[in-house]
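agent> fetching stored inputs for the D-glutamic acid docking request
agent> found them:
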Amino acid sequence: VFLFLDMRNSPVGIFDSGVGGLSVLYALRELLPNEDIIYVADQAYAPYGKRSKTEIQSRASAMSTWLVEQGCKLIVVACNTATTNAITQLRETFSVPFVGIEPAIKPAALGSTTGVVGVLATEGTLSSELFQTTAQDYAKDIEVITQVGHGLVDLIEAGKATSVEAKVQLQQALAPMLEKPIDHLVLGCTHYPFLQKTLQDILPKNVRIVDCGKAVAKQTHRLLDQHQLLQNGNGHTTYFSTLAPNLSLWQLFDIANVTQIAI
Ligand code: DGL
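agent> prediction call returned; pasting tokens
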């Protein structure tokens, strides 16, 4: 018996450790306005960046299990740390298609004229095998300077993306790469686009900020289309967190309703 389950009207699931994935959600909303989306923030376990590979894999798997239980037809891993440490295992475990996000070294390398690019990301991302392999693929053509964005995710999760503290932390993180002639800065963490203004204050004018939220949205569109899963609805997004939601934080993103879930 061939059972055809029409999943076109099922939601797209998206997760991150916190509010960082909202930078990816914005791109998804823009390109796919007719999709229902379930956003889940694993704030009870944030930040992921300092956790071990095993912990990251176990959380990524728990988040995906929950999203599949909600009937999601595709899952966007809106977190570089979770993608670089767990996406292979997620694809082996679940039958839904996954779209991940990882530091966009390739466009930076191709666009670089100085031959030096910077990557700002979490410890978990930079230490991952997937990142190391990608970075090495480009190492013969360009110099890739990596730096951990210590404390930045915590500040953004505390609603302090535009604070003086965030500026000081960013200045410290970027100092070593600014001693070199970088002409691209790859944002290797989905929280960092929320530091855009401060980044522009700190970076020399010729440095391009590379963020691949839009590329993730395009890939999501491509996969939905390929699997004949595109929805033609009203595009409703619902928000969940594994922590009692800090509403003043979510309000910074114009989100009024967040439901706490135990995962
Ligand atoms: N926003 C995530 C990323 O892209 C995770 C940050 C964290 O929880 O440390 O890496």
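agent> quick read of the result: The pocket of D-glutamic acid is lined by residues 16-17, 20, 46-49, 79-81, 122, 125, 153, 189-191 (CB under 6 Å).
agent> awaiting further instructions
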